[in-house]
Amino acid sequence: MFKLNCVLPYAVAVPAGFVLLWQLIKRWYPWIPEDFAFLSKLIRGLRLLSFYRKNNIAVCDRLAEVAKATPDHPFLVYEDDKFSYMQMHKWVNKCGRTFRSMGVQPKDKVGLMMMNEPAFIAVWLGCNRIGAICSFLNFNLRSKSLMHCIDLSDTKIIIAGSDAAILEALNEVESELKERGIEVYVYGEIYKSNGLFNILFADKEISDDIPRSWREDVTSADVIGYIFTSGTTGFPKAVNMDNRKFFAGAVLLSFANPSPSDVIYTSLPLYHSSGLCIGVTGAIVHGCTCVLRKKFSASKFWPDCCKYNVTIVQYIGEILRYVCKQPETPEDTKHSVRLIIGNGLRPDVWKQFLERYGADIHVLEFYAATEGNVGFVNQHNKFGCVGTFSPLLRKFGSAIIKFDVNTEELVRDKNGRPIRCGPNEPGLLVAKITAHTAISSYKGKKSLTEKKVLKNLFKEGDSYFNTGDLLMYDDQHRLYFCDRVGDTFRWKGENVSTNEVSDTVVHAEGIRECNVYGVQVPGHDGRAGMVTVVLESDELDCEALYKHVEHALPSYARPMFVRVQPELEVTGTFKQRKVNLQKEGFDLEKVSGDKLFYMNIQAKTYSPITPEIQKKIETGEIRL
């Protein structure tokens, strides 16, 4: 009894002490419990990546595992078609065997140019099955930009979808393709066009499992695909994607606590990492069902969610803005969506979306880059932010440093070292590169990758990934995305390289010089493309310029506004100045003496901007 009486106070006091300590931590250091919750989930995800890496498990292998464990569970829903995991697994094997019979060997490059459709996944994972590298070609690209991506990825053959726009784009570069000996195969039954296209029938091949020996020398660390990103300068760059990078998307999805009963709605293009890595690969890893839409439709968004019992939606901020502009319908609140995952959601659209469609919907806004080594996620559903940037998480190698947007240079102290930003101070996000936090390299010249690396930043010998993005954290350590820097802006959910657009515009008839940049437009996410031009003659040929950019550039990269100047302003080192042009935009009150034009899509020309036109653009009466 004596011993019990001695132990009893400790038995009560110790747990009580822990409870009190935990309450004090939550009171004075509220981010620590959230950090532990975030890190515990992240560590589980990293362990999964480590397991896949050690066992050389590819995405197609994980599909096979799920197919054999739950063969009849629906994997993919597309319009009125439904494919089980086993059906897709067999389809992948058919594609792999077809490519093998065509002479495709491990590490050969196969170009894939399709809309969002089931065959896209079958072709990609068919390449994955035999160790071939899939080059995901943006179906919006045309002429020079398209051939740049094909050449950069050393494409051996191209598998195309039968969409008319894709076939037209490939027809335009027929001579270049034949010159390089690149064969084009159209998946399914279509008519031949000028002898360029061959017809591919993978559905007539056997579907037995493909032996691992067919890709014996290919490891999980080897490149299995190229996803193109605009980067910060020049034409699109091919990011080297291995299986681990695709599985990392599934780790990001794990913050949504997915289960096989979840249905993920993906209308984002599969040639980008979000749709392919988070939506499709994430569904495969977690055994979920993926609803794939050929192309995003604001009017079909909620009807689709109701029809397919969607529980998780992938988004970019721009598409949710379109959704919020739709007329009210009964489906607005009769859906099963519990969570949305994506990036670029503006606070005003965020607020409107929740108020209209359900305040209990978790917004899993995240920050990441295809080639990067740093990411944040709004696990705790805090309004407007992309995650937290607490003192604990800062220890893991990322920093926000002062950056002069006018000179586009780091602000340094007297010792030449960068200065860390304090709360509520926007700065450049950088992330330390180590053996465990390597960045994905670009295919091609090593210098392309090195441009994204800042060396000897805080001390001699260190290396940091330059994200090219401005972020900021507040007094509660909530992290917010502010803007992009450099020669890239974002419009219609796509990254646009100003150098690429400039290289196109300057070849238009009558254009001597040009300077491309992004400008803010009220009611729109990102920045719209604008170009300041110097003319060969006195007048701008508006119709000719319209036809030129319409033919040569995808819709999201075409300049929405044109400004005519007698000469371009440059720095002492002959770099074009953009900051003042960006600030003045298409505002007639700020632009004095220069003519302004906007892309008049209805008239298929560039039309002069008047005060009335400017007001209509700013109020949304004229759609861009």
TrEMBL record:
This is Very long-chain fatty acid transport protein. Residues 503-575 form the AMP-binding enzyme C-terminal domain. It comes from Ciona intestinalis (Transparent sea squirt). It is found in: Cell membrane; Peroxisome membrane. GO terms for biological process: long-chain fatty acid import into cell; long-chain fatty acid metabolic process. Residues 64-430 form the AMP-dependent synthetase/ligase domain. Keywords: ATP-binding, Cell membrane, Fatty acid metabolism, Ligase, Lipid metabolism, Lipid transport, Membrane, Nucleotide-binding, Peroxisome, Transmembrane, Transmembrane helix, Transport. InterPro entries: AMP-bd_C, AMP-bd_C_sf, AMP-binding_CS, AMP-dep_synth/lig_dom, ANL_N_sf.
